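Regression test attached.
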Amino acid sequence: MALLEIKNLRAFAEDKEIVKGLSLAINPGEVHVIMGQNGSGKSTLLNALAGHPKYRVEGAAAFDGKDLLAMKPHERARAGLFLAFQHPNEVSGVTLSNFLRRAYVARHGKEVSVAEFEKILKGKMRDLGMESSFAERGVNEGFSGGEKKRSEILQLAVLEPKVAMLDELDSGLDVDALGKIAETLSSIRKPDTAVIIVTHYARILKNLKADRVHVMRDGQIIASGDGRLALQLEEKGYSWINAAAPAL
Amino acid sequence: MDENVLKEYGRDALLRDAPGSDSELHVGYRAEHAGLTLELVKEISEVKEEPDWMRRHRIKSFEIFEKKPLPTWGPDLSHLDFSAIVGFVRPKGQGYKPNSWDEVPAEIKNTFEKLGIPEAERKFLAGVGAQYDSEVLYKSLRSNISDLGVIYTDMDSAVREHPELVKKYFMNRCVPATDNKFAALHGAFWSGGSFLYVPAGVKVPMPLQIYFMMNYPGFGQFEHTLIIAEEGSQVQYIEGCSAPHYTKDSMHAAVVEIFVQKGARARYTSIQNWSRNVYNLNTKRAIVQQDAVMEWVGGTLGSGVTMLYPCSILVGRGARAEHLNIALAGEGQVKDTGAKVFHMASNTSSKIVSKSICKEGGVVRYRGLLSVGAHCTGVKSNVRCDSIIADSKSKAETVPVMDIRSKDAVIGHEASVGRISEEQLFYLMSRGMDADEALSLVVRGFIEPIVKELPLEYAVEMNRLIEMEMEGSVG
């Protein structure tokens, strides 16, 4: 059974349809990459799946056997759906460690003492090669672009989701930093979890093996294939795929 | 602090209708009729067996009260009905010499014990007091502190036992009855409160605390706090306030007078959580001498209408004041709060930080006055007011008045008003926090710079109160 199965999903911002009837099935252990130009609806898809209140959603989505669309955003998160944001918000005055402890308690449904959690967090940070002082800063407060990405990855590592959705993880990162984050991502993955990566560029696939690559245009998937599709796209550009897949 | 009590005495928990019998309300003695009249002024003085000078002070204050108009520059007070307020309620038990916890009636003791008093005293306080309606029922001071010459007693006892100190400082040079209508009202009807005297050079190592409870329906509480920190001394004083929610309006008009003498340091912390039909109209002021430091830390969560502008008058060279304030207004609440600082000597400095939160139609207004005299040089002041608005029904305003007459004063002023965005809440929810938890975490982060100045137990309480306030705020 697919871990996440999306059928004919449509997402509207006010009355504007942005995702226009999209279907996708993701099995445990798979890495899916969704590529597409600006405005193709990639980010909206991820945000709609996470339950962003800005979007009205139609269609069906089953997550781990549950009706995803009937769940509130926090229930989706608790059930194991995770969205790494492209532009995560600041939560001024709340330390990353305090924030993460609450998220951890919510995700795992059990209380954990400050001391216990500190141990867990320190372990994860060590694995990721992060200074532990990082967790004592306000959430995304004054973070650089790279720090924001690392913070999102740390959250992913601590919350251990079943499906991790990464929105434009590569934006604002240089090749080295991206490579490092992709490696980290591979190292923290559990075998039965799945990853959806939204990106403009294929370069992240140098460090992370994709099982499926999808190309989005105008709110729909216009092509799907394996990792080679991404490389072809990188080489030939979006005009190639646009020509290959005329308006549906 | 016990969760249930917070729930009970927190917002709209128990909306009790008619008052129970006096015995249910633990009344020992009370004014026969509602109404703030001259007869009651005399009655209070008589019941308290006060010296003549205090009786005359009360009567004179009452005359001033009658002449003064209600302030019209602030929140609407037109529904405040002085004739409906019960101005004096003495709790059951020993009215005077409240020093034995055992003598406090069991039911009242129970209430305070649920609030963590006097357990807290054993843990982290140098002394503790508890006032129930008009009078202080319990007051204690660690013996090692009283051995240093520190006096900590209720204000009624201080009038009898330390008349020379009280006469010298009580409502004359700091907050005279002529100051404003509510100060005059207070001068006439005051009852209870704390008297704290710290001798020169004595540094009190732990805070002193008092807890105020208003229990009688339609009651007016007018406690007086007088703190004298003599030269080179240091002291911290904390007060907490709560009241059950009745259908009748109550009022609270306290006066706090603090004298911070040369080189001394005083911190006054107050966490107010009155029920939402309390008019909270206080006058709090400190006179700060040379090189002395006055710190005000306040959290205004409860009450209906609050007008509160703690004031520091920096009269000595190098005197310093710090004002930290959190105000939260929800449905039906108006928080008109702020700070006043008068720089009346050179090299004085002040810092004001105000954090306001409004939600569900609440109104928060920062009202500040910063004044620097023409003859003062080297004055520095920094004012920062931040507000966050949780929804479109609520309102945050800033009214900062500055009267800077000295040319070389360095004054900084920053203000920000922010809305809690859907994006921000969604970010938190996407990490598994429900809507209430998300909002309360944003608010906690916002007030963190002030909460971290509170003693641990109060910080925990503050955070818990904020969490309760935020429950159900998000649709």
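Expected vs. actual: identical. The radius of gyration of chain A is 18 Å.
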